[in-house]
DNA sequence: ACGGGTGAGACA
DNA sequence: TTGTCTCAC
């Protein structure tokens, strides 16, 4: 639901930049012979020629529309060139478009605060740039105005027959008697025209733009003249624009809310909303939406340009429509593995390029169940803390799926004996990673990361209990024996074979990845204890025929007593391991909890040395106790916020949940004998390492 | 039960 | 907060 934001009296200059049929342009850049031809991008083509997701303007002239099938497009436009979306891991791979979108963003972001609204859309706050231009080189002072700016469309500008349009535009841009806000918009027009030319020059992509005083109007304007044009909405034209604008054209009103406005209130144009008081609209649609509606009817929208160049989440999903629905658990596992592999790859790229870490893994699925009246039941979404590493993500996703499945099947449990004819199937799977945050560079990154974890992941006791109940890793044993084992017998022989092959692929993939990055030397440099832990962990759940479905061998955990909730691995353990496991807390941000698990008796008796890096202090006492706190905190807070723990008690495996690159830092940092001497030197190396891949 | 794959945001 | 829902391209 839309929400009204506080309105700033709008002297802002906001632009919305919209790439023209973006995927088509990306493909045309890759294959220049397609330029100028009717072209469309399709994903998959086996069924009715695939679905169109982008259509060139030449093809649109022939009546080709988005969401046509490839075959339909061929019917209305036989000469159309259809380009397929790249496929990787059996699914559409949009990475090339994401990367192309990033190219554009990095150019646009030079001009002002920039928000990546989608893969091909950007909002820009050009207020500062426009004010500066108006003060230093206002349009009226320029001898020449670029042709691209003169081609702009100015809403409400009168156009007498016979007069030269560009001349009109030039006049409007250079009016010395215009009010301040129109002058700012005029500057915006020049800036945006220039930006669009830069984008074209540097990427070969054309785009369209809207320029106005807020996001809503700019978004409307950018769509008015496409492709490769720009439109400005001066204040005085707002009323005229909105009064005849079909309500469904307004962003956020294209769906049910817009329909409701039409059918319930007889509002067919945005201007029709003016008939209703704010209070009336609030009565119908609630306080937030009501106020929002009242505002947009007047062209008011206080929404800020966010200043975000990167996505807030990453997802990978696929649908399995109709007959392709997944009926067997091994098929689900196969596809989940593919999706997780892609997700993991993208997470690592994000880590390398942007030094960002995601903290939550979510699984969404859609399913049908024809057996009973319950067929409308939705498959529940599940999420858990995200552990880095392809195999871990795959395991966790599978656990989330099984948690969802048990809930979904619920009372049907045993009845749903699986074979391919049974009345249920999975029609969609997706995994996503969210709660992404920056890791500041430098040695202190680790500290800051932990602090951030603490803030964001410190659950109340209540929330923790809930987590224990819902976390797929915490199923009790007898619970898991019932449903899951039933399902386990549903495997078909062929599918089992597929999975087995794939499993080994996964392991080798992981190994390959490791060798390519800096991790192997690090692995081999690790103390033997840690190495042992890895060798046990990696292939474990994929090594045997039933392993990937056998809860005892995967991540089954039971609750262990204690004030802090603790999960303990169910697998056989050496004495040493038992000791470590008592500190283990997998499936949750365990490092964090670990840090909170303070043992005062160890730390207080030690004398504390202080060493400062950036704005984080690492206080180390003797060889085996370290405490961390930010020095930006006030004196009295510092005492409370300080964490202390004994280095010897760190379970190496909890570190595994961090991204590998961070693990490296942590382990080096924890290496007792060299900690002191290495600190400064390492901070340089790490900073250096992090800045090496810097892109944007 | 084919507009797919992805994103963002609001709400309970 | 998690999970659900809506909306958009």
TrEMBL record:
It comes from Rhodamnia argentea. This is DNA polymerase eta. Gene3D superfamilies: 3.30.70.270, 3.40.1170.60, 5' to 3' exonuclease, C-terminal subdomain, DNA polymerase, Y-family, little finger domain. PANTHER family: DNA POLYMERASE ETA. One of its GO terms (cellular component) is site of double-strand break. The keyword Metal-binding applies. Residues 14-254 form the UmuC domain. Keywords: DNA damage, DNA repair, Metal-binding, Nucleus, Transferase. It is found in: Nucleus. One of its GO terms (biological process) is response to UV. The keyword Secreted does not apply. It holds the Pfam family POLH-Rev1_HhH. GO terms for molecular function: damaged DNA binding; DNA-directed DNA polymerase activity; metal ion binding. Residues 563-580 have a biased composition (Polar residues). Residues 558-583 are annotated as: Disordered.
């Amino acid at each position: 639901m839309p929400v009204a934001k506080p309105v700033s009296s709008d002297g802002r200059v906001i632009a919305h930049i919209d790439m023209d049929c973006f995927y088509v342009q990306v493909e045309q850049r890759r294959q220049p012979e397609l330029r100028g031809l009717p072209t469309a991008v399709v994903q998959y083509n086996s069924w009715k020629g695939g679905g169109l997701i982008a259509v060139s303007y030449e093809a649109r002239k022939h009546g080709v529309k988005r969401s046509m099938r490839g075959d339909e497009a061929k019917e209305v436009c036989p000469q159309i060139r259809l380009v397929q979306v790249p496929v990787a891991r059996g699914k559409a791979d949009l990475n090339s478009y994401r990367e192309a979108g990033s190219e554009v963003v990095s150019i646009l972001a030079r001009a002002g605060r920039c928000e990546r609204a989608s893969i091909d859309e950007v909002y820009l706050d050009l207020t500062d740039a426009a004010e500066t231009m108006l003060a230093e080189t206002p349009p009226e002072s320029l001898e020449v105005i670029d042709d691209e700016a003169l081609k702009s469309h100015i809403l409400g500008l009168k156009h007498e027959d016979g007069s030269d349009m560009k001349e009109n535009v030039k006049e409007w841009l250079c009016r010395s008697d215009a009010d301040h806000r129109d002058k700012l918009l005029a500057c915006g027009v020049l800036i945006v025209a220039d930006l669009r030319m830069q984008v074209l020059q540097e990427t070969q992509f054309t785009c369209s733009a809207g320029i106005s005083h807020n996001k809503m109007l700019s978004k409307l304007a950018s769509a008015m003249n496409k492709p490769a044009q720009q439109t400005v909405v001066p204040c005085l034209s707002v009323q005229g624009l909105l009064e005849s604008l079909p309500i469904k054209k307004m962003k956020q009103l294209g769906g049910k809310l817009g329909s409701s406005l039409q059918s319930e209130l007889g509002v067919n144009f945005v201007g029709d909303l003016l008939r209703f008081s704010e209070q009336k609209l609030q009565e119908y649609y609630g306080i937030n939406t009501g106020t929002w509606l009242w505002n947009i009817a007047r062209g008011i929208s206080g929404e800020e340009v966010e200043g975000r160049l990167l996505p807030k989440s990453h997802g990978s999903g696929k649908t399995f429509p109709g007959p392709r629905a997944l009926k067997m658990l091994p098929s689900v596992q196969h596809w989940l593995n593919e999706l997780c592999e892609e997700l993991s790859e993208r997470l690592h790229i994000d880590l390398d390029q942007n030094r960002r870490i995601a903290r939550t893994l979510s699984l969404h699925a859609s399913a049908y169940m024809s057996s009973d009246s319950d067929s409308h039941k939705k498959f529940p979404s599940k999420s858990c803390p995200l552990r880095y590493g392809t195999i871990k993500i795959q395991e966790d996703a599978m656990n989330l799926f099984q948690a969802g499945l048990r809930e979904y099947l619920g009372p049907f449990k045993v009845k749903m004996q699986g074979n391919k004819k049974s009345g249920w199937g999975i029609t969609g799977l997706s995994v996503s990673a969210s709660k992404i945050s920056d890791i500041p560079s430098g040695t202190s990154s680790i500290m800051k990361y932990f602090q951030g974890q603490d803030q964001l992941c410190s659950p109340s006791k209540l929330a923790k209990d809930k987590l224990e109940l819902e976390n797929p890793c915490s199923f009790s044993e007898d619970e898991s024996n019932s449903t899951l084992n039933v399902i386990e017998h549903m495997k078909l022989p062929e599918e089992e074979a597929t999975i087995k092959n794939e499993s080994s692929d996964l392991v080798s993939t992981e190994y390959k990845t490791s060798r390519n990055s800096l991790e192997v030397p690090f692995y081999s440099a690790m103390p033997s204890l840690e190495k042992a832990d890895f060798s046990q962990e990696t292939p474990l759940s994929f090594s045997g025929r039933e392993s990937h479905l056998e809860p005892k061998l995967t991540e089954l955990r039971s609750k262990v007593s204690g004030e802090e909730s603790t999960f303990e691995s169910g697998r056989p353990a050496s004495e040493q391991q038992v000791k470590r496991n008592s500190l283990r807390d997998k499936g949750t941000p365990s490092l964090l909890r670990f840090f909170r698990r303070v043992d005062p008796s160890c730390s207080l008796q030690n004398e504390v040395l202080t060493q400062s890096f950036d704005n984080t202090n690492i206080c180390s006492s003797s060889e085996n106790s370290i405490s961390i706190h930010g020095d930006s905190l006030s004196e009295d807070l510092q005492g409370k916020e300080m964490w202390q723990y004994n280095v010897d008690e760190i379970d190496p495996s909890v570190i595994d949940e961090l991204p590998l690159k961070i693990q490296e830092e942590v382990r080096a940092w924890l290496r007792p004998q060299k900690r002191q001497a290495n600190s400064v030197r390492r901070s340089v190396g790490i900073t250096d390492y992090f800045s090496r891949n810097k892109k944007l």
